[in-house]
Design goal:
Number of helices: 16
Distance between the termini: 42 Å
Keywords: Heme, Iron, Metal-binding, Monooxygenase, Oxidoreductase
Helix content: 40-55%
Family: Belongs to the cytochrome P450 family.
Oligomer: single chain
Protein name: Cytochrome P450
Organism: Actinomycetospora flava
Number of strands: 14
Shape: globular
Structural class: alpha+beta
Length: about 400
């Protein structure tokens, strides 16, 4: 039997093969503050895996995000200005406030009709069309089209956004030839949004690129580096979380027959089912911090300068908080999940992701459709995103199932 001390969370096969639930159960029970060496010569990192500890570290003033939020010490935006992901208070909140008014529930709610039309346009040619890849046909396209509308990106350019996102979100060999792929994609993203930004400066519109192009913080316009970093983080975060939630949610529904019908019985059931999907899927597996003061946990101490990783995916399966945690239960009463992270850096686009998922699963029910899984899940090789690369399904009328 594997010992807790020997577990290596940089081994991507654990996540690609779906073995992480058993690994994290062992860590929560036997090694809740787990030291992990880095096989690439990095300095190593601590992991917190219990729900209570994840929430504590996420809210802990004795940590910083400035050294990175992924396990490797790198920043997606490069070495120029930092994105909101890599800024502590008060700079983080100042920059976050630029976009917050445009992603509040009342604002994103105005997109509901457009999201519904987009869902129907995506579904129409797929109903009864036989086996298809849900990720390619629906899960990756819906959030990109909605995000494009929000940012001001034309629909024709969304395939490029998807390609860049895939290349930067992981080093899965299907999308990446190595770190240089992400660097090249980042430069293409910067060039694209700089051109879009120039057009918005000339003729502002009601989109977030227009907002950022004319925004000020402390009386000063955003710098070139701040703008580049903001575009990058919005593009990746606005796509990955929703895509993984939709794909993982469909997979979950297929594991629990009758759950889709139950979710369709009322708006309350639908909202509860989406929250359970967020818990069960955990679209973002983890986030990292770096200690700036000693942090004592479980008889050990994280020293200043050491990395500490919060595993949201593990906290969401903690049986100290959730009963029968490895089972998808849309009627679950415990809703205190970590699906959008926790604390001041919780997901900026949470309201939009929830709305997209609610509209998608509601329209399936209203149209009497069932998404029937037709093959095995092909998972992303990543310990950062809970991604599904390919999910073979058939979309059929419920009466034909």
């Amino acid at each position: 039997m594997t010992s807790a001390a020997s577990i290596d969370l940089t081994d991507l096969s654990v996540f690609r093969e779906g073995r992480d639930a058993e690994v994290f159960r062992l860590l929560r029970d036997e090694d809740p503050l787990h030291w992990n060496a880095e096989p690439d010569g990095g300095p190593g990192f601590w992991s917190v895996t219990r729900h209570e500890d994840v929430r504590r570290v996420a809210s802990e003033p004795a940590v910083t995000v400035r050294e990175g939020t992924q396990i490797p010490s790198r920043r997606a935006e490069g070495e120029s200005a930092r994105s909101i992901h890599h800024l502590d208070a008060p700079e983080h909140l100042k920059l976050r406030r630029v976009v917050v008014p445009h992603v509040r529930p009342a604002v994103v709610k105005r997109l509901e009709g457009e999201i519904e039309r987009t869902v129907d346009e995506l579904l129409d040619p797929l109903v009864g069309a036989g086996e298809l890849d849900l990720v390619a046909e629906v899960s990756s396209r819906l959030p990109l089209l909605v995000l494009g509308r929000l940012l001001g990106v034309p629909a024709a350019d969304c395939p490029d956004i998807l390609r860049w996102t895939n290349q930067m979100a992981s080093q899965d060999p299907e999308y990446s030839d190595g770190p240089e792929t992400a660097v090249r994609a980042r430069e293409e993203v910067f060039a694209y949004f700089r051109e879009l930004e120039a057009s918005r400066r000339a003729a502002p519109q009601g989109d977030i690129v227009s907002v950022l192009a004319t925004a000020e913080v402390d009386g000063c316009p955003l710098s070139r580096g701040q703008l580049d970093a903001y575009y990058l983080i919005l593009m990746v975060a606005g796509n990955e979380t929703t895509r993984n939630l939709l794909s993982g949610g469909v997979h979950a529904l297929n594991l629990e027959p009758g759950s889709h019908a139950w979710m369709g019985e009322s708006p309350e059931n639908l909202r509860g089912g989406i929250e359970e999907m967020l818990r069960w899927v955990s679209p973002v597996l983890c986030m990292r911090r770096t200690a700036v003061e000693p942090i004592a946990l479980h008889g050990r101490t994280v020293a200043p300068g050491e990395k500490i990783v919060m595993w949201f995916v593990s906290g969401n399966r903690d049986d100290r908080v959730f009963s029968d945690p490895d089972r998808f239960r849309p009627d679950r009463a415990e809703a205190d999940h970590l699906g959008f992270g926790w604390g001041p850096h919780a997901c900026l686009g949470a309201h939009l992701a929830r709305l997209e998922a609610q509209v998608f699963f509601r329209r399936l029910h209203e149209r009497g459709l069932v998404v029937e899984q037709a093959g095995e899940v092909d998972r992303l090789s990543s310990n950062f995103f809970r991604g599904i690369k390919h999910l073979p399904v058939r979309i059929v009328e419920a009466a034909r199932v």
